[in-house]
Design brief:
Blueprint: E1 3-5, E2 46-51, E3 54-59, E4 72-76, E5 78-80, E6 84-89, E7 94-102, E8 107-114, E9 123-126, E10 130-138, E11 141-146, H1 152-159, H2 174-179, E12 187-190, H3 202-210, E13 214-220, E14 243-247, H4 249-260, E15 265-268, H5 270-278, E16 287-291, E17 306-310, H6 317-326, H7 328-340, E18 351-355
Helix pairs in contact: 6-7
Length: about 350
């Protein structure tokens, strides 16, 4: 177990008075550190802890030691759907459809890859005798109606493929179907897993409960936009996709009680944090909503005290989020430490526990 003072490794960032650029959140990542498969045993990953100016190398099995009785652990209980479909247009060209959001039992918004974009009114032939009509476009997404009496989620479960992230080089296998899903996933709707939760198994959750940790849930259905690069030169010009979330009353009550008694709230994953902070702008309230929240350095966090997360892509909105939470220089130092020590990155990679940096405003 190593402790590394971050102050010895900080590289000064650009002038703080200038607008932040996407390049400020770039870093060199050796390709061999991108995890292509999950660890052989769920929860056997490493854990890098960032707290009050120091780094600590641990194992994920040590995570319960970081929690105390009365603390709140918030999990995102969304379930990944088999959102990827292959087929062809009625005119004959091949298409690949990635469902972004299920709207109702027959309709969805989707990304479509094709040599030529399908036009409104055209018909797509997908999977095994599954047909969808293109109703039009909403921004970069296509509005589709599936021509079946069977509910769309059931159709996808039978005909679709698991939508692995673009940096995973292999097609989804039986292993992926089991491991690219949290053990507590219950509400279907995501097209990407809330990957910080992939480290937990039932035994660890029971250990945390036995310790007196209050385990609560939120739901945020992760969209395909989570993998979209930030193309704008300045981060202020980037637009986030909208995602649905729900905060149960029991979760809101537990968070209020924890803060009132001096206990901490730990969000498992950036999706849990985004849901909570979206609902906490004017005091955390239960309910459903849509969020386009873009958390960048300078954001004032109101609900979450610590964040368990994986290591994120260069130039990504999620790297900007963790930099806002843990400190720009501190996260830069942590990522340099992670690459030097060959932590595994991205969805199937290792975990990082970040204590919120003290906020002055």
């Amino acid at each position: 177990m190593k402790h590394l003072p971050i102050s010895t490794t900080i590289v000064p960032l650009r002038n703080a008075f200038l607008p932040m650029r996407t390049d400020d959140f770039d870093f060199d990542l050796p390709e061999n550190l991108i995890a292509q498969h999950p660890p052989s045993v769920r929860g056997s990953s490493r854990l890098l802890c960032l707290n009050k100016g120091s780094l600590e190398d641990r194992q994920f099995s040590d995570f319960p030691q970081k929690m105390n009785s009365g603390d709140v652990l918030v999990l995102n209980d969304t379930r990944v759907i088999k959102a990827r479909l292959h087929g062809f247009k009625h005119s004959g060209g091949k298409v690949e459809v990635l469902i972004e959001r299920v709207l109702n039992d027959n309709e969805a918004l989707a990304q479509i890859r094709a040599s030529k974009s399908p036009v409104a009114g055209s018909l797509l032939h997908l999977a095994e005798n599954l047909e969808a009509r293109v109703l039009g476009r909403e921004g970069e997404f296509f509005h589709l109606r599936f021509l079946s009496d069977e509910p769309l989620l059931e159709l996808l479960e039978r005909h679709g493929n698991l939508p692995l992230p673009p940096y995973i080089a292999h097609a989804a296998s039986a292993e992926d179907e089991a491991r690219y899903q949290t053990v507590y996933a219950s509400k279907a709707g995501a097209v990407a897993a809330p990957t910080a939760g992939l480290h937990f198994d039932d035994a660890m959750l029971n250990t945390l409960r036995d310790k007196g940790v209050n385990i609560c849930h939120v739901t945020l259905h992760v969209g395909a936009g989570t993998f979209q690069p930030v193309r704008a030169e300045y981060i202020k010009d980037h637009a986030m996709h909208s995602e649905r979330y729900e905060i149960p009353q029991a979760t809101a009550d537990a968070i209020h009680a924890a803060h009132a008694s001096g206990k901490k709230v730990v969000a498992v994953g950036t999706t849990s944090l985004r849901a909570l902070e979206s609902a906490a702008k004017d005091g955390l309230k239960a309910g459903c909503g849509e969020t386009r929240i873009f958390i960048t350095p300078g954001f004032k966090f109101r609900a979450v005290d610590a964040l368990l997360t994986n290591f994120h892509l260069p130039r990504s909105t999620l790297l900007m989020l963790v930099s806002a939470f843990g400190g720009i220089d501190e996260i830069r130092a942590a990522y340099r430490h992670a690459t030097r020590n060959e932590y595994r990155f991205f969805s199937y990679g290792d975990a990082m526990l970040i204590e919120k940096k003290n906020q002055t405003t």
